[in-house]
What we know:
Helices cover 37% and strands 16% of the residues. It has eight helices and nine strands.
Amino acid sequence: MVERQTEPAGQEYDATPFLPRRGGLPAYRRAAARCQGCPLFREASGTVFGAGDTSARIMIVGEQPGDQEDRAGEPFVGPAGRLLREALHEAGIVESQAYFTNAVKHFKFEVAGRGKRRIHKPPSLREMSACRPWLSAELRLVDPELVVALGATAGKALLGASFRVTKDRGALLPLPQDEHQPAGRAGGMVVATLHPSAVLRSDERETAYAGLVSDLRVAADALG
């Protein structure tokens, strides 16, 4: 049996009231821990904010925390994160010089089986939109030259609802701005690719992994 999280009809989702009025990333991290901008905070263990080099030239954006990330309170610490780090190394991107975060800061899941295993569930457009102010703040404060979008959710959060991984991956695209994110570095760019979890699920894992590395090399080459 699967227990499903549901969205109350008509309820407005927005993290904006929980953002601090001033301060750097530490202030935003503390404020995000108290975010109730959408119902996901009720079931997750806590907020998983971004981590890494706070003046990074490259920002890695995933979908949302997974089960292990939710328990640890850190992004990309599970199997997909380990595979991502291997791919970054192979592509020539130095992990310690990157900033890692997710489009949605709480783990969305459904509980299945007698063992109560928590199964990842994709966030909705309303949840993505609610969480966008946190991502915009990270983009503004880190001010990266280039962003890597991992998977459809991150791509839509950064590039809009028309984004498709199969169509837009591996291309160097301009980073749009929004009302939460005043223009930072001139010429900020995005490269989209598969999420590492999709590589792990693929029946042709070697091919999928090679594609991930190839897309990351586009990002590495853009940074020179």
